[in-house]
Amino acid sequence: MKGDAVRGHLDALLLAALEQGPLHGYAIITAVQKRSGGVLELRTGTMYPALNRLERLGLLRSDWQSAGERRRRCYELTDAGRRALGEERTAWRELTAAIGAVLDPSPAPGPAT
Amino acid sequence: MKGDAVRGHLDALLLAALEQGPLHGYAIITAVQKRSGGVLELRTGTMYPALNRLERLGLLRSDWQSAGERRRRCYELTDAGRRALGEERTAWRELTAAIGAVLDPSPAPGPAT
DNA sequence: ACCTATATGTTGGCAGCCAATATATAGGCC
DNA sequence: GGCCTATATATTGGCTGCCAACATATAGGT
């Protein structure tokens, strides 16, 4: 997969990864990788700042889990995050429909043919 | 549609627009706009340099039509351009499948259930 | 002692798109 | 004649958002 593949859809991927329940950053990377069949690999330099940004926007909340184990920052969706995910899904469907229609145009139905 | 919507897929759109036959730049803009249901609007500052680049890469060839009419630069696909379009289509399907799988994960089928 | 996996982050760079601007012809309208 | 819009092509400068590289730390295997 060429670079910049997820450009413009990173937020959607992160929000979707957290939909089924809280995860920490490293687990998000592996979850996205697994769900995409190994195609999508989030970079730490891309993801961590993005998670921070989404938290500042109120779409995620995080808490540190340091007990016994290694320290982990666990993220979960807020209500606003769930709404944002819905909007991201809609935008994604619109975009794929639009680009798909250009890439594979359905033959224009002629009048009475 | 938010900005940068076509990011990373501009070449695919241009090649696809030229698949059914030669067009000049302005006609490509209107064709893409129409095919996408008005969603995608190519900017001149984006498209013309891209067309130039694709021609330098040997994926398009162009000729000026200045007879009588306004001058127009008409582009058409080369054989390499047709092959590139096929590759762009494949890449697009892979990308949409991968992102789609993350956005709308199908429930993992348990063994023998 | 060393490597790998786990885990989180920062910094600098740059590709690729956009807005704004420039130019030119043709046709309609007042 | 003067103005606006559509047609038609092109360049410039700027910014967004991702990436590679680096930095740090613990735990477990060999």
Structure explained in plain terms:
2 copies of one chain form a homodimer. With 113 residues, the first copy, chain A, is an alpha+beta fold. The first copy, chain A, has a single domain, classed as Arc Repressor Mutant, subunit A (Orthogonal Bundle). In chain A, 50% of the residues lie in helices and 12% in strands. Chain A is built from 4 helices and 3 strands; from the N terminus they run αβααββα. In chain A, strands 1-3-2 form a 3-stranded antiparallel sheet. In chain A, helix 1 crosses helix 4. The termini of chain A are far apart. The mean pLDDT of chain A is 91. The interface between A and B is medium-sized, with 35 and 35 residues. The first copy, chain A, binds a DNA duplex (30 and 30 nucleotides) through residues 3-4, 6-8, 10, 24-27, 43-46, 48-50, 52, 69-73. Chains A, B: It comes from Streptomyces sparsogenes DSM 40356. Chains A, B: Residues 14-86 form the Transcription regulator PadR N-terminal domain. Chains A, B: This is PadR family transcriptional regulator.
